[in-house]
Each structure stands twice: as C-alpha cells, then as structure tokens.
Amino acid sequence: MAHYVLVVGASGGIGTAVCRAYAERASTARVVAISRTGLDFDHPKVRALSCDHQPGSIRALVEAHPAWFRQLTRVVICNGQLHSDDFQPEKRIEQLDSEAMMMLFQINTVTPMLYLKALLPCLPPDNTFRREKLAASLHSQPRIVVTVLSARVGSITDNRAGGWYSYRASKAALNMALKTAAIEWWRRNSAVKLLAFHPGTTNTPLSQPYQSRVPPAKLFSTDFVAQKLIAQMDRALPDGALSFVDWAGCDIDW
Ligand SMILES: NC(=O)c1ccc[n+]([C@@H]2O[C@H](COP(=O)([O-])OP(=O)(O)OC[C@H]3O[C@@H](n4cnc5c(N)ncnc54)[C@H](OP(=O)(O)O)[C@@H]3O)[C@@H](O)[C@H]2O)c1
C-alpha cells in the first residue's frame, strides 16, 4: 500500500529525519512536511509547506490542500520545546515563570492538538473500515496511524527525579488530551490509531544542553529514532486506545 505521510514540525532534528526516512522508502507516495522555516533538503517525494503553527494558519493550510490531507495514512507531529534563550527547565519551584510555562504548554500540548482538530475531518472516511470487519480487513484496508512526539518525563508514575515542572506537565497534559482524542476518534473513524512516542534521548538542539551526562550508547541519532518510529507505526493496529510507547516498542506507565 502506498503511504501518504504528513510530518508537522518537520524542520526539527527528529522531524527532518522522519521526513527523509519516509521519502526514501519505496512504499511512500508523498511526504507533506510542515514547518515554520522550511526543510534543509530537497526530495522529489517531499512537498514542504510553511506554517507558523498558529490556529488560523493551521486551519487555512489544511483547507487549502484538501486532497492531500484526505489521502493521509501516516501523520507524525514533532513539535516540542524544552528550553529557549530565555528559559531553562526548572530545577526548583522558585524558578517557575508563568510566561515560560504557558509557552511550553502552547508548543507541547496545544499545538499538536490543534493539528489533530484540523486533521480529523479530512482523513479518509471510515466507510472502508468497519469495526466489525476489523480482524478480517487488517491486511487489506488502509490504516491511518498518527504519532505525536511525547516524552517519558511526561509519565506521572515514572517521575522519580522531579524538576522540569513545565516540560513534564505539558507532556503529561498532552498525553491526557491524546488519550481523550483516541476515544473520540475511535467512535468517529475506527481506522485511526494514535501513538504517543518517546524517542529516547536523541541528538537534537532540544537535548543538546543536557547530553553531557548521557552515556554515548544512550544518545540516539535522529536517523535511528526515525527508523524505530516508522517501524512502530507499521506495526500499530487501530484499537481505540492511545499507546504511550518508547523507541524500543515498550509501553510506558502513565
Ligand atoms: N531530543 C530528545 O532527546 C527528545 C526526548 C524526548 C522527547 N522529545 C520530543 O521529540 C519532539 C521533537 O524534538 P527534537 O528533539 O526534534 O527537537 P528540535 O530539533 O529542537 O525540534 C523542535 C521541534 O519543535 C517545533 N517548535 C519549536 N519551537 C516551536 C514553536 N515556537 N511553536 C511551534 N513549534 C515549535 C519545531 O517545529 P518547526 O519544524 O516548525 O520549526 C520542531 O518540530 C519534541 O516533541 C520533543 O519534546 C525529544
């Protein structure tokens, strides 16, 4: 089956690697890559679109290309921020800053959800994939897999080290919003599977200031993570649930 792929946040480290990896696969028909700044590579299968990720711009973009979005079988949303020139993740509660916290919620939680909101009505209709025929048709019908980049530090159970209030909370909120969407989408389009994906510590600008204590074997390249992510999307089956999984395919506790 030919895949029509959308990558949002396509100019970041992981987003770029996912675009490139999908473009190089024979089974990919087209990659639509949305980013604020454009891509640093060209490929005949890749169409780059620019967007500032604001609500009106997201809506306008999807409405301008209805045919592309109707064909989608794979969606990867890579937006995320941990630090900026003016903000470092909090080590102590005294460092909480409302503006910085709101900014991280906007980028890490709200922006991915706005893309899901815009996309659902455009996805291929459910009439090709009835729930009662699920088992029989898994291998013949189109499955739509939507992955949003989350993070293990968004796990409430796994939080043993503390710190990073805003980033942790924004990813935990993202997971809850995604779980809610998985329930609603199952009712409205049972061909769709949602994944919240933890890539592991990956060598990108986001993790760069925090890499010194990571053993080399545990600092992944973006190409490695892209391959792991794509393999998991290929295996994922629609079941009405959100899966919170890491790069190795292991479930993460909520
Ligand atoms: N790297 C790691 O170790 C690691 C670990 C766990 C989870 N993650 C998650 O993986 C995802 C990808 O991160 P990365 O490592 O590839 O980081 P990155 O290279 O810094 O990429 C940042 C991403 O966030 C988007 N972004 C940045 N500022 C934004 C803003 N103001 N508004 C909207 N979008 C904005 C960028 O979109 P544009 O393309 O439009 O610029 C880009 O997709 C993030 O969700 C991150 O939380 C990463």
From TrEMBL:
Gene3D superfamilies named in the record: NAD(P)-binding Rossmann-like Domain
PANTHER family documented for this protein: NAD(P)-BINDING ROSSMANN-FOLD SUPERFAMILY PROTEIN, SHORT-CHAIN DEHYDROGENASE/REDUCTASE
Name of this protein: SDR family NAD(P)-dependent oxidoreductase
Organism this protein belongs to: Ferrimonas pelagia
